[in-house]
UniProtKB/TrEMBL annotation:
Enzyme Commission identifier(s): 6.1.1.17
Top-level class of the enzyme under EC nomenclature: ligase
NCBIfam families in the record: gltX_bact (TIGR00464)
GO molecular function: ATP binding; glutamate-tRNA ligase activity; tRNA binding; zinc ion binding
Family according to the record: Belongs to the class-I aminoacyl-tRNA synthetase family. Glutamate--tRNA ligase type 1 subfamily.
Biological processes per GO annotation: glutamyl-tRNA aminoacylation
Glutamyl/glutaminyl-tRNA synthetase class Ib catalytic domain location: 49-358
PANTHER family: GLUTAMATE--TRNA LIGASE, GLUTAMATE--TRNA LIGASE, MITOCHONDRIAL-RELATED
Compartment(s) where it occurs, according to its Swiss-Prot or TrEMBL record: Mitochondrion
Entries under HAMAP family matching the protein: Glu_tRNA_synth_type1
Protein name: Glutamate--tRNA ligase, mitochondrial
Source organism of this protein record: Maudiozyma humilis
Pfam families, sorted: Anticodon_2, tRNA-synt_1c
Amino acid sequence: MSTLVLGGARTLVLRGAICRGPLVAAQRTLATLHHKQGRKVSVQPTTPVVTRFAPSPTGSLHIGSLRTALYNYLLARRTHGKFILRLEDTDRTRLVPGAEENIYETLQWCGLAFDEGPVKQSERMAVYAKYIQVLLDKGLAYRCFCSKEKLTASRLDGYDRHCLHLSPEEIAQKLRENDGQCIVRFKAPDHYAPFTDLLHGEVNIQERRDRAGHDDPVLLKSDGMPTYHFANVVDDHLMGVTHVVRGEEWLPSTPKHLALYAAFGWAPPQYVHIPLLTSVGTDKKLSKRRNDASVLALQQQGILPEALVNFCALLGWAPPRDVAQQNHECFSLKELETLFSLDHLTRGNVKVDNSKLHFFNKHFLQKRIENPKQLEELVEQIVPDVAAKFALVDCPSLHDKVRHILQDCGHGLTTANEFTAAFGYFFAAPDYAQLSPDAQKLLSGAGRDQVLAVLKELGPDISAATVHDRINAVTEQLGIKKRIVFQSLRLAVAGDVSGAKIDLVLGILGSSEASRRVAAAITHIQRI
């Protein structure tokens, strides 16, 4: 099995070669380093597992975090295990108001029910204090009183462990001088043991050894709050977490976590580091700082939770080909719960292409239209927007009309948000002075006279029942292509040359309204 060696924050060491560059370059290289020897061995657990989703409430949940939550949820459900929600909220300076509630609402919206939690790390200070003392008593951690200036200066060359050998008396004196405040550091080992990642195989990550100092991670900050590294390990152990599925960006931190497990004498969980999500356009990592990756923003754009869950599941996981082909990779959450397996995770960064998300959304929107209960929910969602835009607040038949349009024409929608713009002509006659570019093109040049001739021949009393016979007759009588006849009638009744089937449009509009619009279109075109 191939071994990946990462040195420090910016050095990748592979087979004796040293490459300088950002850590992300090392992470991308990781995807190419896993080498299978012989027959592939399954890494999918066969007994119930305990997983967790542990976000920091520092902003709206984004699809990268949702994917992490989903994979942990699916692994727990597939093995009939436990899924825990834990809030890693100890960095109080980065908390964002409303972020905690956003996490709860997003998970509920997507149907990811947790079995335990939410557990807040900020409410577990006594627990962390207990285990800090364990490491201090073992001599595997030490109090540090160095100034910020000294620590800043040591970042390049590493920390010189100035405070490691302070006597108990010196520690007590410095605690009095600093009002009891200090940080607690972990005495990092000189060498980190290689470890096995269930996705990438054997990984060997070492700190840089071209520096005089050490990289002893901080476990407890001066405000008494634990760092991510320490609280993460303590909580995973106490909560019985057996499998940790998290983003590949946490791979360089894993040796520190495993060293802490060893220091306590605890058995670590199995780790699965899933690939980074990158933007198709920029090839940059998706971030919660960019609103286009926010689950809340996608929800506001009309994306359905079923579609988003389906989309996120496939960002680094591929079902067996025969299963995927059966329904074009469209899976409900319940189906994913029975299909998900660590054996089908993919390596290498994943490009996020929202066109696939829109494909799924269109699929699940149609499913909702076909479901009587969900159809009514869609109607209730759409009616206020239609009523406001077209001043139809007191229209008693509006619900029935919206429902009728969804059932007959809704298959063309990608999101419910498109309804008002796509089907506005059902509620207000077209403005023939503001036609679409395609409609204007149809009326240009000799096309104007053709359209006028078609509309005059179609005449009054046009209806859904007779429209196809009338179109066939006019096509033969005028010697005009049937396509032009269809487009002319559609222009008159809907203001565009394409859209829902013409008989469905006329059926919803009614013969009287359709005939009135044809007459109005004739009047307008004659003035051109």
